[in-house]
Amino acid sequence: MFDVIIAGCGPTGALLAAELRLHDVRVLVLEKETEPGSFVRVVSLHMRSLELMAMRGLLDRLLEHGRRRPVGGIFAAIPKPAPEGLDSAHAYLLGIPQPVVNRLLEDHATGLGAQVRRGCAVAGFEQDDQGVTVELAGGERLRSRYLVGCDGARSTVRKLLGVGFPGEPARTETLMGEMKATASPEEIAAKVTEIRETHRQFWLRPFGEGIYSVVVPAAEVRDRAEPPTLEDFRQQLCAIAGTDFGVHSPRWLSRFGDATRLAEQYRAGRVLLAGDAAHIHPPAGGQGLNLGVQDAVNLGWKLAAQVRGRAPETLLDTYHAERHPVAEAVLDNTRAQVALSSAEPGARAVRRLLTELMDFDEVNRYLIEKITAIDIRYDFGEGPGLLGRRLRDVELTEGHLYDRLHRGRGLVLDRTGRLAVAGWADRVDLIADPAAAVDVPALLLRPDGYVAWIGEHQQELEDHLARWFGGPGRPPNST
């Protein structure tokens, strides 16, 4: 009997497993692929995701394998520098191979005690008041208290659950891959500059050693399960640029469309959805992986509290209430970015206008904060502007705030020296530091780094501790 079974061991599933293990939840991750993916696609981790990795002590390991890039120019690829003074200690993008992210997060989860079984696909499940019975493709049946579908855009869990997935099907498709090219860097750069005047979904970006990231519009929309060939790239490069640049030796080839869909609900009883199983959208702005790992950190501590029997009645429902609107906003901004990439005259005119508007610092800052998810504010009721927002990695008298969040617990940062968390000390830490770099008397930070309360009175603090972490005293060990 497991506490939680997770379908899918991509970044979302692996990080969710790790978050659950921080609270001693018995976790099994089922991955239908027998081996980790070998393609070397480079992805970008955004500011909020980098903050979450720092909060769990993972960032240094990721930095060893990635390359920092400026955070400017990521909205619709409009080339504007990042505004100064972004509210993060990690105001950059980290370009990193996705297999490295997958491996590090899976190692993190298994190092904490999560079990991962490869070559195991979910074929069916039934849920009741006590748990979920999961049937594997080979006929084996497993029992768990909860099931979470992190199994991608074609999620079997979502389909079996019968959750609606409304939105728009793909109307256009783009080829993406990494490969070598024999044309000179000067020739490639000049031709790309010329083509991008009218085709925004076109580029060849150098990675070094003759390797380029190649993006080119496809001739037609096909089944994504059918991988493109190098010849497909050559034909489309010739059709649009008049040359194939001598591309050869691909490292990986893929295709993506502009399908945009959002699950109607993230939870149905004891079954939940996260990552691409809950939302799909074009890769404009590089938000997909980031949205998924942020789902995982939002859900992990809440589901753990439910399993451990200390969750307030409505805590698990806040997962959908908080993350569904965030995904809606991401879907809308990717729709806008795709529209701005069109070669149609109207879209090009709007792009020119927005390019001018982004010269205003407020506009540029607004769009970058939106794409990188540091603008999110959850609705925790009336209160100061910081309430419901993430807190940057502030300096303490000794060290930094994020170093105190590695265990995934709540935290009270008290500058008054008068507050206590005695009844919640098994799940909430207290830092009494009058010199902490915040301009409020005290605050309560959730395990996902969002400010849940601001004030200075003990009774108010206890009311909010109960709201987010259940009643005082030791809870039962199970639901």
Helix content: 25-40%
Mean model confidence by pLDDT: 94
Annotation field: number of helices: 12
Estimated share of beta-strand residues = 15-25%
User: What's the end-to-end separation, in Å?
Assistant: 13 Å
Computed structural class: alpha+beta
* Largest beta-sheet details: 8 strands, mixed
CATH-level-2 architecture of the largest domain = 3-Layer(bba) Sandwich
The name CATH uses for the topology of the largest domain is FAD/NAD(P)-binding domain
Number of DSSP strand runs: 22
Quick one: CATH class of the largest domain?
Alpha Beta
> What is the CATH superfamily of the largest domain?
FAD/NAD(P)-binding domain
- Using the CA coordinates, give the radius of gyration: 23 Å
The gross shape turns out to be globular
Uncertain parts: none
What's the structural domain tally? Answer: 3
InterPro entries: FAD-bd, FAD/NAD-bd_sf, RIFMO-like
Cofactor: FAD
Protein name: Monooxygenase
Keywords: FAD, Flavoprotein, Monooxygenase, Oxidoreductase
